[in-house]
Structures are given as structure tokens and as C-alpha cells.
Amino acid sequence: MLLAGKVALVTGGTKGIGAATAIEFARRGADVAINGRHHDEDARQVQAQIESLGRRAVVIVGDMGIPADATRAVEETIRGLGAIDVLVHSAGGAVVGGLMELAPETWHRAFDVHVHALFHLCRAAIPSMRQRGEGAIIMISSVAGIRGVHFNLAYQVVKGALPQFARALAREVAGDNIRVNCICPGIIRTRFHDQMTPEQKKYNLEHRIPLRREGTPEQVASLIAEVAGNDYITGETFTIDGGLTMRIA
Predict the structure, then answer these.
(1) 3-class DSSP state for residue 31?
(2) Residues in Cβ contact with 60 at an 8 Å cutoff, skipping those fewer than 6 apart
(3) Cα–Cα distance measured from residue 3 to residue 173, given in angstroms and rounded to the nearest whole number
(4) Residue 154: what pLDDT?
(5) Which of 90, 105, 127, 234 is in Cβ range 3.0-4.6 Å of 140 for a Cys bridge?
(6) Which residues are catalytic?
(7) What integer is the mean pLDDT of 153-164?
């Protein structure tokens, strides 16, 4: 699938990896709908960058933890841009706490945003993709869904669900020429990791990441675009983490 002339919806597309992905898709010739919880300055900047590349952009405000908002994001993409060829679910956020510290509503909210949203997004998007004769769905997980991270129980569990979600759905829709894959970023230079202290960042570079540097949203976006555009990849999970998950010492 060449991305030129296609339509993509990127949830969480106003910040970080989602924003970089939306802009990368536009660079490759796609029109892009970006979803965020607010139509704020971040959203306006991403929209402007997409339009500066000569592509159409729409901003869809909605909370992916609310099923009706997830479904509406797809509907507004189709209404505003005429179709949906690629779905990238990048909306999410940190969920800090262990079993005894997590409030039940925090646990359920994590599943609503990261996992349940995908159920509703995919149900809304797949019929249009079937009509188009092809489609690509990319789920943004995390290396935290592959390896343990202290005091992040809910985040690990919901991110760990996404690779299996991708495999299961990929098998189900392969006959429709719809591909489903999962991307697991490591420590990427975004606001998500701003909570780390300078000491934690130093430790990561010296002791955890073999390449000794953080990744960038643009590097992750490039991988997402490559996977979305390659029509012979499905049911796979890709890590992009500077080697973080390969080491045992």
C-alpha cells in the first residue's frame, strides 16, 4: 500500500509519537485526521504542518476512553476526508502504581483508553477498509508490554494485550486484505518521559539502552509508516528501543 493518496486516522495525533506519525504520513502523501482530547495549540500546529505539506488535515476532538468518541472519530474521518485506509491508535498515557495502589477506576480507565478503544475503532473502520479493498491498522504498544517495569502494573497489562490483539485481528481480516501490526517503542524523547529525573535518564543511557541514546518520535513514526505501507506484513510486533529489550545484563 503506497501511502500517497490514502487517508489515515491517528489517535493521540496531537502530541509525541502520534503527532510525528501524522506528519510523516503527510510527507508520504496521505491526508490525515488527528484525534486529541482538545483542539489546542498542539493540534493546530500539527494540522498546520500537515497542510504545509499540501495534504488535507482534520482535527477530531474526542476521548478514546469513551466508546462513542472512538466510533465518532472514524465516522468523522470518513465524512471529512472521504475514506479511511490506515488506522493508528497512539492515544494513551502513563498509568503509575502497583496492585494495591491502583484505584479500580484507574485500572478500568487504562483498559478503556488502550484496549477497549481499539475494539470500537476497528469495528468502525474495518467496513470502510473492506469496501476499499485494503487497509492497515497499527497498534502502538510499548516495551513495557514485553518486559516488566516496576510499579506500572496497569500500563504493562494493557500494553501487553495489544500484540495479541494485533495477531488475533490480523488473522481474522487477512482475507479482506487488511493488515494489522503492533509497534513497541522503548524510551522515546517525548513528554511521556519528562517525569524521569536526570539521574534516571543518565542510568538509562549508561546501563539500560545498548545504543546509549533515547529514540525520537520521528524514528518511531518512520517505522510506523513503513509497516503501514508494506502490504506483505501482518500479525507482527516490532520493537524500536535501541536494544533495551534484548539485553539480560
Answers:
(1) strand
(2) 9, 33, 34, 35, 72, 73, 76, 77, 80
(3) 20
(4) 96
(5) 90
(6) 155
(7) 97
Cβ neighbourhood burial of 114 (10 Å; 0-12, 13-18, 19+)? buried
What order of strands is seen across the sheet that includes strand 237-240?
Answer: 57-61, 31-36, 7-11, 86-89, 135-140, 178-185, 237-240
- Alpha-helical runs (H) found in 112-193: 117-132, 153-173
User: For the packed helices 153-173 and 117-132, what is the interaxial angle rounded to 10 degrees?
Assistant: 20
Please tell me whether the overall predicted TM-score, pTM, comes out greater than 0.85 for this model: yes
| pLDDT tens, residue by residue, 190-245 | 876 667 788 888 888 888 899 999 999 999 999 999 999 999 999 999 999 999 99
Residue whose C-alpha is closest to residue 43's, from 55, 57, 54, 29? 57
Least Cα distance to 240 among 220, 210, 212, 218 occurs for 220
